[in-house]
Amino acid sequence: MPCLPTSAAMSLPSVRLPLRPSAPATTTPLSRRGPVLRSLAPPSPALLNPLVSASSSYRSALLLHRRRRHALPEATEAVTITPAPLPKVTKQYQEWDSLTAKFAGGANLPFLLLQLPQIILNSRNLLAGNKAALFAVPWLGMLTGLLGNLSLMSYFAKKRETEAVIVQTLGSISTYVVIVQLAMAESMPMPQFLATSAVVAAGLLLNLLNYLGWLPGTLWQLWEDFMTIGGLAVLPQVMWSTFVPFIPNSVLPGIICGSLAVAAVVMARMGKLSEGGTKLVGSLSGWTATLLFMWMPVAQMWTNYLNPSNIEGLSSFSMLLAMIGNGLMIPRAVFIRDLMWFTGSIWASILQGWGNLACMYCCDSISREFFFATTFGLFLWLGFTFWRDTGAYGNSSPMTSLKELFFGK
Q1: Are 129 and 155 within 8 A, CB to CB?
Q2: Which of the two ends of the chain, N or C, has the fewest CB atoms closer than 10 A to its terminal CB?
Q3: Looking at the predicted structure, is the pLDDT value of residue 256 above 70?
């Protein structure tokens, strides 16, 4: 920093301060108090000592040079932040919001009726002492569906979708009832049953506490990590087991993917992943649960292809209930722009419901009138969904709604 000689400093003119102000501050009106107070303020250091002024000017010039050199933004520059566009809340938008919530809540009825016949049949066989009949129900498949219900329950509880939470809760409870019956018939090993019971109890309790806002964030994070690891371990194992007659039976897929899931979760919690990677790990539990449900109709159709005689054992009423239950949740998934929910619902509605009905029609298990009536009803429902959503959001066409669903606005 340059310094002035002593003689120059001594020759600087002195500054004389006023002994008193020209007017007392108390006599000034409130509206004019600002200028008076500024006149009463003590003089700046630059007036008392020009050396301070020179030093301040040098520092300002140095700071400006550094900003220009390193491309630092000026303090006076205005930063424009463009908020994400929000849909215009019209009367039609509010009506569609309420209607889709009612549709999602109405899905409880077909899903409850879908599991109820199996529960009644198992109860009759247990009372009659016919435990061997319950061995026809694979407990691993029921466990897979139960894990899917628990994962989706946690996903929808975090999004505050009450109707979807109720659907998954009833699905978890009804599936667990079937598992209890399988354990009573000794079809399911007792250690696996006890472990499943502990997971179900913990899942229902933790989801309830989290929905009410009474659960610490750390405990909820541990539960989500557990469901992520469990889903990634079960999904590839179930997919591998579907083709076991043509590939060797092995548990390596579940072990390998489960180990990779543990590594990914640990790295995400230690901050070793990027922001995108951390978000991906956080969404894996919901997607694995969706993929588990999406794989169930694929496995069923593969079984039908290998053994066409099994189609005679399928219930067209159960397939219709599956199509209706999943179809009722499609409008809500489209309305809130939830791609994961939409993918799982429309996949199950078309493949698990309509797809199995198509297989049954090709094998002459159902009438032509029944099949074409359900086909017309499904496509009419999908058309109604996108037509109403287009009007609620004020879009120009249903393709715009689909674009927003898949790619966002």
Answers
A1: no
A2: N
A3: yes
